[in-house]
Amino acid sequence: MRSDRRSLRHVFRETVCVPNSSSAGRRSHHCGGRRSDMSSEMTAQEVRLCGLLLQEHFGDVVEKVGTHLIRSGVLTLRALAHETKLPLDLVKKSLCVLMQHGMCAFGAGRRGPAGPVEYHIICERILHMLRYPRYIYTAKSLYGDTGELIVEEILQRGQMTMSSTVKTVADRLTHNMPEGQSMDYSEVVSAFSRLVETHFLQRCPPMASAESSSSGADNTPLPAVTQPTEPEDHPECYKLPYINLTGQGKRRRSSEDGEADPRAAKKAKTDSSERGDEGIYWQVNFQRFHLHFRDQAIISAVSCKLDQTSSEIVRTMLRMSEVTTPTHAAFTQALSANEIFRALPSSYNIARPILDQYLTLLVDDPMEFVGKTGDSGGGMYVVNLHRALANLARATLESVVQERFGSRSARIFRLLLRKRHLEQKQVEDFAMVPAKEAKDMLYTLLSENLVQLQEIPKTPDYAPSRTFYLYTVNQLPTARLLLQHCYKTVGNLIERRLYETKENKRLLEKSQRIEAILASLQATGAEAAQLTEVEEMITAPERQQLESLRHHINKLDSSENQVDETIFLLESYINSTQAPR
Amino acid sequence: MAGSRGRGRSQFTFSVDALGFGRGDSLPTSAQTPSPLFPPMQFRPVPLHAGEEVDYMLALKQELRASSKNLPFHIKAARTKTDVARYSDKYQNGEPKNNCIEWSPDWSRMPKELCIKVRKPRKTVIGAKPQLTRKPKVAAGKEEVLQKLETLEKREEEQHSEEEEDEEKKKQNDEEEEPDADEDYDEEEIEDETDYIMSYFDNGEDFGADSDDNMDEAVY
Q: Does residue B151 belong to the interface with chain A, where contact is any CB pair within 8 Å?
C-alpha cells in the first residue's frame, strides 16, 4: 500500500524499555556505551568495585584518594588534597603507591609544562587486581614454581628490578627447600629470561622527563614530563639487561630477622647499582596474559564442542601464529595445512587425510572458529579470533538467560539473536511456546533489559494499532549490560565477605590468638596435655561457627574468581569490537 | 485522528487480545509495597566449579590478601593524638607517621612534588636529591661528632691537602653518612657498656616535623 511505503520512510524510533534498578550501572543515554580506555567515564559499578579492591589491598587512605581521583578524572596534587580533606603527606604517599603499581599516571597539566602536574587513574589496572590469582597460576603452569614466584613478587610490588626479583625469589624458594639446600640464582635468572622472551614480563617505559640532576630550589618548575609512553613503543622493551649476579638464595633464620634483613636490604640496594641494573624496572605484561587466556578459552571451547584432537589442532595453529599475529588482529596469520601437519605434536600421529577432514569439520562448524582463506599448500587456514570471541560471548549470554529464566526463555532469546527482529506472533510460532507464556517470558526479558522493543510505524501518528512492534536482541549492548551486572556481582560478593568477617571478628581474633599460642607451645616442646588444654579454649559450637565461616568465605572468594572469568570473556569481546587504537 | 472518533465507538486504538487478557477479566492488583530485596529465585544457581585448579587459585587469592596487609604499600593514617602527648610516644617506632614513606620508590620516575622522607634511615637512596620535607639537623649526636673527629684525625695524619676535600665531601654525603652512623650506632650500643641506653636518646630530629602543615600551633 502506498501509505505503508510512505510510513516506512519515517525515522525508526528505538524504544528503550522500562528502566529498573538492575541497570543502575548504566549511563543515561544507552547501555554502557563507553570506551574502556577513557578512564573519566567510569560507570558507578566500576567505581564501586575499584574502591573495594583498593581498600582490600592498600587500605582506606588509598581507597579514598583513588576513588576521588577516578570520579574527578584529572586533578593536581593540591586539589586532590583539598577535596579529600586528607593531610598532604598521606595523599603523596597514596599517589606513590598507585604509581608504583601502574594504576596512576601523571602528565603535564592544563597550564602546560610550567604548571602543576595532573594525575589520573588507569581504572582497568585496578580491575586487573581481581585476576592476580589467575596470572600467578598461569605462570606456575607454564614455568613452574620459579616462574610463579617471580610473577607473584612483581605483581605485589608493582615494578621491580631484575636483580632484586631474582634475590627475593631465590630466598623464598630456599626457605621452602629442605635444610642444607638452596636455590641458585642462575636458575631464577633463566626462568626470568624465559618469561621476558615470551613477553610475559616487560620493561616499564622510561620516563621521558629531563631530570634536573642538581638540587634546584624548591620552586623549580617540574621537568617537562610527557605522558608515559606505551611500553611496547620502546625497542628495548624485552631486552634483558646484563647483570652480574651469582650466588644462592639465603635462608632467613628467624632470629636474624631484624638485623640481617635491613643490612641485606641495604646491601641489595648498593648491589643493584653495581650489577648494572639500576633504573630498569620490570612489570607484568597483562596484555600477553590476556592473549593467553583468550587462546585457552578458544581451545577449551573447541574441545567441548568437538573433540580433543580438534582442540589440539587449534592449539597448534595458535601456537604457530603466536609471534606473528599482532595484538588486535581479527584472525591469525594464514597457515597452510602442510605446516600444521608438520607442527603437530608428535604424540598426535594422525594421518594427513585425517587432518584435512578435521580441518574441514572445523571450518564447517557453525561456531566458525577456523576459516579457510585459500587453497595453496593444501589449504590455507586461519583462526577467526574476533568471531570466536563473539561466539563465546553469545554463548555466555544465552547461558545466563537459561540459568535465570529457564530453557524456554533461552529458546526465545536464541531465536531473537538469530532472527534479529520478530513480531510477537512470530516469536510464539517459531519458539513453539503457547501464546500466553510467550508473552509472559518476553515481558520478563523486556523488563530485565535483555530484549528490546522496536517500533515501526505505518502511519506518521504512531497509532498503536497501525504500528509494528518488533522484539530484538542486540548482542553488544546486552554484553555491556551483563558486564556491568558482573561488576556489581563482584562488588556484592566482596561486601558480603567483609560483612561476614566483621560479624565474626571477635571469634576470628580469638582463634588466631589460640593458634599463635599453640604454635609457640609446640615450638618450645610442650606436652600433649597442655596442647589439648589450649585447644579446648575454643568451645565446640564456636568451632562449628568458625568452620561455617571459613566455608562461606571460601565460597565467596571462589565465586569472585569465577565471575572474573566471565568478566574477562565479556571484556575481551567488547574490546575486540572497538576499533584498534 | 479526531475525525473518526464518532465512528465505531467500541473500537480501541490497539487490539485487545494483544494485551494478554480478555474483556471482563480483573486487572492484576497494583503493587502495595516495593519489590522484595531478595526475591525468591525461580531457578537455583549452578554449583561453583571445583577442582585442584580452583582450590589453588582460591588459596592464592587468600594468601595475596593476607600478605598485602603487611606490605609497606598498605597505608594507614597515623593515629591522631587524642588527649595528652605521652612520653612514650617518642619511643614507639612501630607507629606509622604521616610524613614518612615506608619504602623507597625510584624518585626519578615520579614527579618531584611527591618526594617524601623515606622512613627507614638505613635505606640509603644513592644520588638522592635533598628531601624537601627535611628540616636541618638540630644537634648532632654525641657519637657522630666523635666519629667525625676520629676520621678527621686520621685524615689529618695522612695528608693535609686532602683534608679540605674530604670535609666538603662529607658535607655533601651527609645524608649517606648519617644513616651509616646510625648503623654503626647500634653496633656500638652493643659493644659499649655504658649506663646510657642509646635508644632513649632523642636527637631532636623529629621535633616539629609532625606539625609541618598545621600552622595553628606556634613553634617554639
A: no
